[in-house]
Structure formats: structure tokens, C-alpha cells
């Protein structure tokens, strides 16, 4: 009944239970944080805008992104993944989301940033629907915890419009 | 002889009822594990509710040996979500992030493009030959929770099967020889 094996088993079971409980509590504590991030994105330039040989529209933009995501960080945050996506509707597609830029923020000190960049991923439509197209730029973030539940949210910025003609 | 002798004696002294009890309790352990797994499948709606990260393509977010909890609801797939998907002709599912989504107006079908956070380019090279987009049926679930390191147990067991057999053997012996 009180052999080494039983004692080791009881100790291990207890240790694992406590560890699991601690992980759960740490993850739950993230819910106490109510973040208030801010973001601004400007389209500084349309570098070029054309129809590819296969018929799809493609555009190249220069963006200025400034954001403060410091309030997202808690003691359980490993990193925050942040990206800016162009979102628009066409007659063919109810929703198009095209990621233009993304980055990984490793710590709170780096969470207040601004960056001047061209689009990192190609902004290609499915078809030729981009001329004169209104679109939103949305800053999404994805909080990756040290353990537990992941959180994601976004800020939508509307009122952007692509030119009427290729250039 | 001490310990080994005792063990052999205890195996010799087994009686039919005792063997039966032990078989039943072993069966209980196996079936309750199966019940938990199948129950999780029902609750999460994903055919594999827990996956182990095998590659470093999502570092520094997910490292090799971390465990992800999946959920598969009817909510549409959106950019930024981390999805687990199967590609035709590949056995091992891949965990990557969605970077582009095109949802068709008439059918509601989605075209999805993924990329590993730590990879330089998108995943078109990983997809089946000539495949440009992932569709709903490729996707097994989206990652909702994360637990570090625990997956190393399964990685070690698949890569060093000898450890698995030793472990199973030791547990089996323990079950056979225990009296309680």
C-alpha cells in the first residue's frame, strides 16, 4: 500500500494536476485585461497598378503604418502577431481579404511602432475588379500566449479607394 | 533474487478472478481514454482535437513539441487564423496561418492561402502540384489554445519506438503484478 511506487505515482499525479490548474488560471487571468490598442494606416503612394497577363488586377502600394499595441501585453503573452489586410467586396466575391504586411512583436517595448513599407505580399485580385474599388485596411492582431487560449481582434479603417485607371 | 523473485511469485500466484479483475480494470482505462478522445471530437467538431507541432515553420509562436487545441465550427475561415490542413498526397497535416481569403458570392465556397510565420514565402510550394488555393474540405480545424512542451512525449515515442515498448512493457508488468 505504501510502497515507493505508490508514493511516486501519487506525487506525480498531484504535481501534474497542480501544474494543469496553474496553466488554466494563468490563461483565465488574460480575461482581466481590457486592451485599448490604436492604429493608423496611410496609403502614401500607388507604385503601380496593372492587369496581369492572366487577367487578374495587381497593385503595389506604399503604406505608413503606426500603431500602439502595448496594452495587449500581459504576463502570459509570448508574442503578438500583427498584420494589415486589404478587405473589399466584388461582384464575384462576397469577401476578399488580402494580407499586405505582417510582423511579429516579441515584447511590450516593441509594441509601439511605425513602419514605412511597400506591400510585403502581392495585392492580387481574383479577376479584374480593382479599378475604382473602395476598400478597407484592417489591422488584425493575434495574441499568442505562453500557455492557454489565444486572442485575436482587429481595427477596421475604411475610406480607401484605388484609382480608376491603370498606371 | 529478492525483487525479481517476488515478482515471479506474484505472477505464479495469480488466480482466475484476479486476472479477470485486472483485465477489466485495464479495459476500463483504455475505454475511458477512448471516450475522452471521442467526446473531445464531438465537442470541438474537429477530427483531431489536439495536434502536436512537428516543424519550426511557425516559430517563435509555436515550437516543435508544443500542443495545439483545435476547434472546427461553421464560422467562415478568415485571414489571420491559424489552421491545420491536409494537402492531397501528404500524410502529415500542416499548421499555418491564413494570409488571403476569397469568399465566392454565389456558392459561399472559400479560397484560402496560408503561410508559416517563420517561412519566407507562402505555401503554394507545399500544396499539391498546380493547386493554388486551399478549400474548406482541406481544413481540419483552427487553433484556439496552446500548451508548450507536452507534445515532446509523443515526438520521442514516434522517433524512438524502443522507449515506447519499454514504457508499455513496464506499465503492463505493473498492472499484472499489482494486487490492489
Automatic annotation (TrEMBL), chain A:
Family matches, as PANTHER family: MICROSOMAL SIGNAL PEPTIDASE 23 KD SUBUNIT SPC22/23, SIGNAL PEPTIDASE COMPLEX SUBUNIT 3
Membrane topology: Single-pass type II membrane protein
Alphabetical GO biological process terms: protein targeting to ER; signal peptide processing
Protein name per UniProt: Signal peptidase complex subunit 3
Keyword Endoplasmic reticulum attached: yes
Record function comment: Essential component of the signal peptidase complex (SPC) which catalyzes the cleavage of N-terminal signal sequences from nascent proteins as they are translocated into the lumen of the endoplasmic reticulum. Essential for the SPC catalytic activity, possibly by stabilizing and positioning the active center of the complex close to the lumenal surface.
Keyword entries, A-Z: Endoplasmic reticulum, Membrane, Signal, Signal-anchor, Transmembrane, Transmembrane helix
Family stated for the protein in its record: Belongs to the SPCS3 family.
Domain of life: Eukaryota
Pfam families given in the database record: SPC22 (PF04573)
Signal peptide: 1-29
Localisation: Endoplasmic reticulum membrane
Main location group: endoplasmic reticulum
One GO cellular component term noted in the UniProt record for this chain: signal peptidase complex
Organism: Coffea canephora
Automatic annotation (TrEMBL), chain B:
Protein's cellular compartments: Endoplasmic reticulum membrane
Gene Ontology molecular functions: serine-type endopeptidase activity; signal peptidase activity
InterPro entries registered for this protein in UniProt: LexA/Signal_pep-like_sf, Peptidase_S24_S26A/B/C, Peptidase_S26, Peptidase_S26B
CDD domains xref list: S26_SPase_I
An example Gene Ontology CC term for this record: signal peptidase complex
EC number: 3.4.21.89
Catalytic activity: Cleavage of hydrophobic, N-terminal signal or leader sequences from secreted and periplasmic proteins
Taxonomy, superkingdom: Eukaryota
Pfam families assigned to the protein according to its UniProt record, in alphabetical order: Peptidase_S24 (PF00717)
GO biological process, one term: signal peptide processing
Topological relation to the membrane, as annotated: Single-pass type II membrane protein
Keyword Transmembrane carried by entry: yes
Domain Peptidase S24/S26A/S26B/S26C, residue spans: 37-102
Record-linked Gene3D superfamilies: Umud Fragment, subunit A
Record's keyword terms, sorted: Hydrolase, Membrane, Protease, Signal-anchor, Transmembrane, Transmembrane helix
Similarity remark: Belongs to the peptidase S26B family.
Task of the protein: Catalytic component of the signal peptidase complex (SPC) which catalyzes the cleavage of N-terminal signal sequences from nascent proteins as they are translocated into the lumen of the endoplasmic reticulum. Specifically cleaves N-terminal signal peptides that contain a hydrophobic alpha-helix (h-region) shorter than 18-20 amino acids.
NCBIfam families attached to this UniProt entry: sigpep_I_arch (TIGR02228)
Protein name: Signal peptidase complex catalytic subunit SEC11
Amino acid at each position: 500500500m505504501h510502497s515507493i511506487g505508490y508514493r511516486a505515482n501519487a506525487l506525480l499525479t498531484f504535481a501534474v494536476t497542480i501544474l494543469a490548474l496553474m496553466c488554466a488560471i494563468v490563461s483565465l487571468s488574460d480575461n482581466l485585461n481590457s486592451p485599448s490598442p490604436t492604429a493608423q494606416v496611410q496609403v502614401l503612394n500607388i507604385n503601380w497598378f496593372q492587369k496581369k497577363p492572366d487577367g487578374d488586377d495587381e497593385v503595389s502600394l506604399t503604406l505608413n503604418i503606426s500603431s500602439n499595441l502595448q496594452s495587449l501585453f500581459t504576463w502570459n503573452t509570448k508574442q503578438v502577431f500583427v498584420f494589415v489586410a486589404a478587405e473589399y467586396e466584388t461582384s464575384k466575391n462576397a469577401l476578399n481579404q488580402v494580407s499586405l504586411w505582417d510582423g511579429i512583436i516579441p515584447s511590450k517595448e516593441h509594441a509601439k511602432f511605425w513602419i514605412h513599407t511597400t506591400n510585403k505580399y502581392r495585392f492580387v485580385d481574383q479577376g479584374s475588379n480593382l479599378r475604382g474599388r473602395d476598400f478597407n485596411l484592417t489591422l488584425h492582431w493575434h495574441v499568442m500566449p505562453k500557455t492557454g487560449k489565444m486572442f485575436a481582434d482587429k481595427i477596421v479603417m475604411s475610406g480607401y479607394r484605388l484609382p480608376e485607371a491603370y498606371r | 533474487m529478492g525483487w525479481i523473485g517476488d515478482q515471479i511469485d506474484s505472477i505464479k500466484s495469480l488466480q482466475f478472478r484476479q486476472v479477470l479483475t485486472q483485465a477489466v480494470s485495464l479495459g476500463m482505462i483504455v475505454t475511458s481514454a477512448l471516450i475522452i478522445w471521442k467526446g473531445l471530437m464531438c465537442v470541438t467538431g474537429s477530427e483531431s482535437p489536439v495536434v502536436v507541432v512537428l516543424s519550426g515553420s511557425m516559430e517563435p509562436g509555436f515550437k516543435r513539441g508544443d500542443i495545439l487545441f483545435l476547434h472546427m465550427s461553421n464560422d467562415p475561415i478568415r485571414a489571420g487564423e491559424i489552421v491545420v490542413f491536409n494537402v492531397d498526397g501528404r500524410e502529415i497535416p500542416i499548421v499555418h496561418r491564413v494570409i488571403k481569403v476569397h469568399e465566392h458570392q454565389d456558392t459561399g465556397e472559400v479560397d484560402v492561402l496560408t503561410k508559416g510565420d517563420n517561412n519566407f514565402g507562402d505555401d503554394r510550394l507545399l500544396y499539391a502540384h498546380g493547386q493554388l488555393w486551399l478549400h474548406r474540405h482541406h481544413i481540419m480545424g483552427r487553433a484556439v489554445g496552446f500548451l508548450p512542451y507536452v507534445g515532446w512525449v509523443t515526438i520521442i515515442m514516434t522517433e524512438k519506438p524502443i522507449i515506447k515498448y519499454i514504457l508499455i512493457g513496464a506499465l503492463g508488468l505493473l498492472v499484472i503484478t499489482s494486487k490492489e
